[in-house]
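ok so for the tutorial part 2 we go from a plain amino acid sequence to predicted structure tokens. step 1 is just haveing the sequence, like this:
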Amino acid sequence: MTTSNAARPTSTANAPPFTLKRVGVFLGAEISGLDLSRPLEPGTVEAIRLAHAEHGVLVFPDQKISSADLMRFGRYFGELSVHPFSTSTANNPELIVYDNKEGNPPGATDVWHSDETFREAPPFGTALCSKIIPDIGGDTAFVSMNAIYERLSPKWQSFLSGLEAVHDFKPFKALFSGTPEGREKLRRLEDMYPAATHPVVSVHPVTGKKVLFVNPEFTLYIKGMDEDESRSILDLLFRKTLMHEYHYRHRWKPDMVVFWDNRSVQHSALHDYYPQRRMMERVTIKGTRPVSDGPVAPQSDLRRYLMPPLASFSATRQKRQHDL
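step 2 — the prediction. this is what the tokens look like for a chain of 324 residues:
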């Protein structure tokens, strides 16, 4: 990994150059020399795609763009997704508008997470554009999950290889009322978005680097393990994201676009600005299923039973009331 912080011009054939300057040790780069209100040449898009994979977080300052411009920028990199629990606009469900102020506090986005890992195929990336920024506060913190993985001991890296974790949209379940109508709506969405299983360690499809792919927002447990062992392992991994050395903390200004890689980066949006107003627009690009760093660990390596589970004896066990 290069350690130079010097700005360097980046150009591709038949495309205007842009300047890239690193802003963090393990992640983060600022790109200048581009106007995202104008269409981009394919060569420029490809250069951005590669920089996005390499640096994890790209910052585009001084971008006075419309919602349509932001959506066009996102579509350069794939199909836009519709978040099932977002504050989307009626005419453009792919466009999320966060307009948080007194009387409309922000949601639970101040927990470390990668966007929508409850999906079978989590997003490739997210682009967020600042419209109204509070005088103080409202930063977004990012953390490199590749840097965290690479600094685990070889023993831990070997142990985590092949483990799988179950992800769920648990934080959004509080949005549904306890009424019969609310419970029925939640059941329908649980059918639409069943819990997804992803590798604990995934391989980035562009860089080939290994990444820890668990987060405290959506990850429930490690599949096949005893609950106490699973919780101990996840708690240890979650604590790694708290280490400042792996962070880039972004201080917003109006008319900035930040484009981050959900495959290798987690983020946390700080809520210290409330009740000041903070208005942002966001698009999210569809991704693919995470790829494991190795073969799935066999069940026999994950759990040892004092007594086999009842589910193993469905044909011979006693019937219970719910079976009748």
